[in-house]
Amino acid sequence: MTGALYMKILYLTPVNIDTPSSVLNKMNAQIEEWNSFGHEVYVASLPIFKVKEKHVFLTPKASGFFVFKNLLVRKFFTGGFFNMGSKILTIWQYKNYINSVSPNIIYLREIVGFPGLASVLKKYKVALESNTVLMDELQANSKILYQLAKLYQDKVNKEVDGFVGVTNEVTNQFLKYNKPSVTITNGIKMEHDNLSPAINSRPQVIMVSSPGCLWHGTDKYIKMARLLPGIDFFLAGPEKKDFNISLKNLFIKGYLSKAELKKLYSKMDIAVGTLALHRNNMKEASPIKVREYAAFGLPMILAYQDTDFSDKGLDFILQIENSEQNVENNIATIGDFIYKWKGKRIKTEDVEPLISITLKEEKRLEFFKKILNNAS
User: Fold this and answer.
1) Residue among 230, 226, 235, 202 nearest 342 (CA)
2) Are 181 and 164 in contact (CB under 8 A)?
3) Rounded distance, CA 163 to CA 183, Å?
4) Four-residue CA torsion sign, 61, 65, 69, 73
5) pLDDT tens digit string along 62-87?
6) How many Å apart are CA 188 and CA 258, to the nearest integer?
7) Rounded to an integer, what distance in angstroms lies between the CA atom of residue 133 and that of residue 138?
């Protein structure tokens, strides 16, 4: 990175650091890259869930971390009331921690605004990372959080000095603030685990999803399995108990560790990305799971505009429309694509320039430097 400037970065996040997750994996990878460029990184976690574990899954490359456990909130609140009550009642402890670190810049993973948050940000340079069009997502999924965001989100955003979106669609929502903004898609660390092609008698397809995320389109994936009985479909993430369905060619695996997923990927021919982003009123995304598919060499079926992959004429991508009927409308094309790519892998050199986290984090650090220099 040319003209490198040492920075002490405070990563303020709603992500639990005591619970393994793909989002925490992304945070850890970002922190490790920033550290490799010579920067010092601290983490303050305003956890979404109760802190239950003694173990912390934060990367050791972080210079320090802070999670305040409010015993009163833990005792009397559960669910969404815990999530918000904990944030409101403990924000001043976070303010004290941030002041003790005295960072050059705060990197804020977007969080639903609440009383006190804007005040904490006021005296620091702040870059905000957004992974969604938040107001649209909240309006579709949580009336209470939507009303809270209507009261406080603008106050938080006015204290932000620069916005980072994972897609152009996400970045564009912040243009009204007239502040520096940049689109930096999700990336992953390339471990060169591109696997040898699988040898299967029947094509094998995988989708990694998360319980409760309707925009992932798990129901459409199941429909795909029903309409293509000669192909085997594997679903990782949700549990069998989440479904009342029995298909001979559908295998529901539940949560899998990275090692378990890698083993499963080695047996797959094709991977499927998000199928129902339209349910969040969105068109564009850059999911980490899709970058993992690509890193392991799996050709992909996508039903949204991927900022890194779509519209590039890549033959290993089957692009279908982002609509409610997209699976049944394209089932013959989907079947043809699966059989065409059975037993083949994408070359690492074809995807590494598109998904390497090192290149993306270098760009992010340059954006931090721009903010610190008050560039517009």
Assistant:
1) 202
2) yes
3) 9
4) negative
5) 999 998 876 665 555 555 555 677 78
6) 13
7) 9
